[in-house]
Amino acid sequence: MEAKGTHHRVIVIGAGIAGVGLGVRLLDSGIEDFVILERNDSVGGTWFEHTYPGCACDIPAHLYSYSFARNPEWTRLFPTQAEILDYVRETAERYGVDRRIRFGCEMLKSRWSEADGRWHVRTTVGSFSCDVLVSAIGATAEPNEPDIPGLEDFAGHRFHSARWDHAHDLSGERVAVIGTGPAAAQFVPAIQPEVGRLDVFQRTPPWVIPHPDRPVPWAERQLYRFLPPLQDIQRNALFLLYEGAGVGFRGREELIAPLEALGRLHLRRQVSDPGLRQALTPDYRFGCKRPILSNSFYPALAADNCELVTAAIERVERNAIITADGERREVDTIITAIGYRYSRSLLVDRMVGVAGRTMRDVWDESPRAFLGTTVSGFPNLFILLGPNSIGLNSVIFSLESQIAYVMDALRVMDQHGIGRLEIRREELDRYVEELDSRSARTVWTQGGCRSYYLDDSGRQFAIYPGFASGFRRTTRRFDPVPYEVAATPAGDSIDGALR
After folding, report:
1. Beta strand pairing status for 328-330 and 101-102?
2. Are 460 and 446 in contact (CB under 8 A)?
3. Taking a C-beta distance cutoff of 8 angstroms, is the pair 365, 456 a contact?
4. If DSSP codes are grouped into helix, strand and coil, which group holds residue 278?
5. Are strands 320-323 and 313-317 parallel, antiparallel or unpaired?
6. What confidence category does residue 340 fall into, taking pLDDT thresholds of 50, 70 and 90?
7. Largest alpha-carbon pair distance within the chain?
8. Quick one: average pLDDT of 263-284?
9. 316: which residues sit within 8 A by CB, 6+ positions away?
10. CATH of the domain spanning 6-142+341-498
11. pLDDT at 343 over 60
12. Contact present, 370 and 443 (Cβ < 8 Å)
C-alpha cells in the first residue's frame, strides 16, 4: 500500500486493456514515476468483471490485440473472456506493468487544485497526488439498471449480466432476462437448456447475422508463431474490411442493404414460427444499434421453454413481472442485461475540475471531449476511450491512437516546461460541432432507432464518425496550439512560445 499523500508524475485509473496498454508505453518511454489504481484484485477491467456464460469478444482476435504484443496462441477467431483475460495478464507481466499497479484501490474522488497544480486523488486505501491524471475507466465499468417500479423490492434473486452470480443455480428455475443486446445474445443460449422456463423481455429486436467464429487449428497457430508477418496480414485485411463497412454506416446506405438481407435470411432459416419471426424483425437500418453475431441466439429464443415477450414491463412484484397487457409472469430470478452507464460513468461525479465543477456539471448529460481525450475545465486530465473516440473495428486500435496522443503530450510538456495544459473551450466546441455535423449523416442518427450511442437529446456521443485510420492520423502528434498552457499552475502563459 502506498503511503498517504504519495505523489507521482502520472496516475492512471483502471488496469483494464487501456490502463495496461498505457503502462507499457510509459515504461517504454522511460517514465517510471507512475502508478495504476485498480479497484479489483486483477488486471483485465471488463474482461475480469464480465464472466457471464458464453462471454466472448465480437471482434476477431487479430484485431483485438495490442499492436506491440502479438498473440499467436489465440485458439478461436473470436476469443472467449477467459482467453482475453489471460492475454491481458500475460502482457502486464511480460512488460512489468503489473508491478506498477495498486490492486484493491478504488478511486473515490479526484480533485484538481489550482493552488499547487496537481490532481489530488482519494481512494479506498489512502490519498495520492499527481501532475497528470489519466482515466482508463472505460465505457463498461458501471452496469445500467432499468427504471422499473418494484424492481428493487423483488423477493427472488436478481443480478446484472455484468456481475454474474455464479453461486446461484439456475437449474429448473423460472428466469426472466430483461434485454436482448450483445450480452444477452451470448448468455441466453448458454442458460436456456438448464432453466425451467425462460422469459426474454425485448424492447427493440436486434439485427443478428451469422457468426463466422471458428477454432484456430494448431498448425495455423504455429505458422503465426514462426512467421509473425502472417498474423499482421490477417490483422490488416480485417482492418480494411471493417473500415470499408464504415462507409455504409456513414451515409452510403446501399452498402448496408446486403447486411440487412443476410440478417433477414438468417432469421428465416433459424426461426420457423411466423409470429416469433415478425417480433424479431428489426424496423431500422443495420448498424443503428450494435449488431449481433450469433448462430445460437435465435434457436434459443425458439426453444419450447423460452418465450420472447415484447409487451412493456409495467412493474415488478415480489415474485412476478407484470406487463402492460396485464399478463402476470411469476419468476424466480431476474437477470438484467440492458447495458452500461456509458454517459454516466464513474467520471461524472468523481472527477472535480476547475472551480469545483464536476464532470457532470460540465458535460450536462452529453459527454464531449477534444479528440475524445481532453475536456475544458479539467487541466492535465486525459480520458482513454472517451466521447466519440470508438472506431468501428477494434477499441484497441482507437485506444492505442489515444495513448500515442497522451505520450506525445507528456513529451511536449517536458520539452517546453509546461506545468498546466487545458483544452480551450472554443476549440472543444468547434471540434464537437464538426463531429456532430458528420454524425448527422450517419446510420447512428438517421437509422430509425434509439441506442446507447445517443444521449437523451439524440446527440451521438460514442462513435467516431470517420475512418479509424483518420482518427489515428489526428492523434499521432500532440499539438499544443488548441490548449491554454502555462509553465506553472498559476504562472505566466507560454502560449506565444508554442505558436
Report:
1. unpaired
2. no
3. yes
4. helix
5. antiparallel
6. confident
7. 73
8. 97
9. 148, 149, 150, 151, 153, 154, 322, 334
10. 3.50.50.60
11. no
12. no
Percent of the chain with pLDDT over 70: 95
Equal fold, 6-142+341-498 vs 151-212+253-336: yes
**Radius of gyration from C-alpha coordinates of the chain:** 23
The CA distances from residue 432 to 309, 383, 393, 405, in Å, are: 39, 16, 22, 18
Report the helix count and the strand count for the chain, using DSSP H and E: 16, 20
pLDDT, tens only, 42-55: 999 999 999 999 99
Say if strands 306-309 and 197-201 run parallel, antiparallel, or are unpaired: parallel
The per-residue DSSP string of 443-492 comes to: HHHHSS---TTB-TTS-B-SB-SS-HHHHHHHTSS---TTEEEESSTTS-
d(CA 179, CA 204): 9
pLDDT digits (tens, 9 = 90+) for 423-442: 999 999 999 999 999 999 89
Residue 1 is predicted with a pLDDT of: 37
User: Burial level of 5, CB count in 10 A (0-12/13-18/19+)?
Assistant: exposed
Q: How many CB atoms lie within 10 A of CB 314?
A: 15
3-state secondary structure of 408: helix
- Hey, where are the domains in the chain? 6-142+341-498, 151-212+253-336
**CATH fold for domain 151-212+253-336:** FAD/NAD(P)-binding domain (3.50.50)
Give the count of beta carbons closer than 10 Å to the beta carbon of residue 149. 12
Per-residue cell: 273: 414460427
Which grid coordinates are listed for 219?
498448425
Q: Closest Cα to residue 349, out of 167, 142, 173?
A: 142
Environment class of 495 (CB within 10 Å of its CB; exposed 0-12, middle 13-18, buried 19+): middle
Instruction: Judge whether 498 and 421 are in contact, CB under 8 Å.
Output: no
- The label of the residue with cell 502563459 reads 493
Query: Which stretches of 256-338 are assigned E, i.e. beta strand?
Result: 292-293, 306-309, 313-317, 320-323, 328-330, 333-336
**CB-CB contact of 473 with 398 (8 Å):** no
Report DSSP state, residue 210.
Answer: -
Helix (H) or strand (E) holding 131: strand 126-135
**Positive/negative CA dihedral, 289, 290, 293, 298:** negative
